[in-house]
Amino acid sequence: MAEPEKIKEQYDTMYSTLQAMGLNPKGDTPEDLDKWIRDYIEHQKEYKPLENVLLSPPPIVALKTETGAVLKVAPKPTVTMSSYAPKVRNFSGGDNKGEIAYDIWRYDVKIALKDPTYTKTQKDFAIRRSLSGSAARMIMYQGLDKPINDLLEILDSVYGSVDNKEQLLSEFYSAHQKEDEDVTTWSNRLQDILGKGIEKGIIPYHEMKTMLHAMLWTGLRQELKDVSGHKYDSIQDFNHLRVALRHQPKKPPSLTLLRQLLLHLNQRMLRN
């Protein structure tokens, strides 16, 4: 093959190769194409190729405090949305025997509303479907577009506690352990009374344990108070005091019983 024809063939092959690479070569002669390639190479030295830029992201700068200490930023948690409606137990307004009380149902509702894995539509559906009987009939005519908070306000006005702060505090401070109540039942009754005030926002939550600690011992039956005063003075936490009182004998022997036992022993000794 003659030299000019060989050069022309190499030129055509290189030109086609550059076009296949997505480039737009310029030059009608091998000399012009050679110049375009050299210029292209020089131009690329001034700029990083796009793929290299993508593979080399800018460095992450750590957040620091005024003193220079590096702040540790916890990764943002991801929330997986549920495809099912939340579980809310049934409430009929007292029509169904053995169902949960209204305040327990409201607690279920509060948990469902706070759960981020459910949509607003799922929560509204679950709350409406949990109602039956007279409770469901009460909101049935409010319309399907009635905001759920408005429906809860209606239900609260019928089934919720109407005690004011003075009434709740009077009930709390006048309470006493009953003869058939153990320490656990007695302490739960105190928490239930106080919980109504906390739920309504009329008693501060941070005062709850202090108030419960005082009344748990103050309202005890006298025979338990007589043998547990030192525990009340030394244990300042409500839950710890409850555990300690549960360890006390349920029915400590009275002084009268001890005197009768002592008299009985003396009489037997005299007979002998």
- Structural class category: mainly alpha
Describe the global form: elongated
Catalogue the unreliable spans: 50-55
The helix content, as a percent range, equals 55-70%
In short:
The chain is an all-alpha fold. It has helices at residues 3-20, 30-46, 50-55, 102-114, 120-129, 133-140, 148-159, 165-173, 183-199, 208-218, 222-226, 229-234, 238-246, 255-271.
Account of the protein in words:
The protein has 272 residues and is mainly alpha-helical. The protein is built from 14 helices and no strands. Helix 8 packs antiparallel against helix 9. Mean pLDDT is 81; it is low at 50-55.
Give the tags:
272 residues; mainly alpha; 58% helix
Topology:
Elements: H1 3-20, H2 30-46, H3 50-55, H4 102-114, H5 120-129, H6 133-140, H7 148-159, H8 165-173, H9 183-199, H10 208-218, H11 222-226, H12 229-234, H13 238-246, H14 255-271
Helix pairs in contact: 8-9, 9-10, 10-13
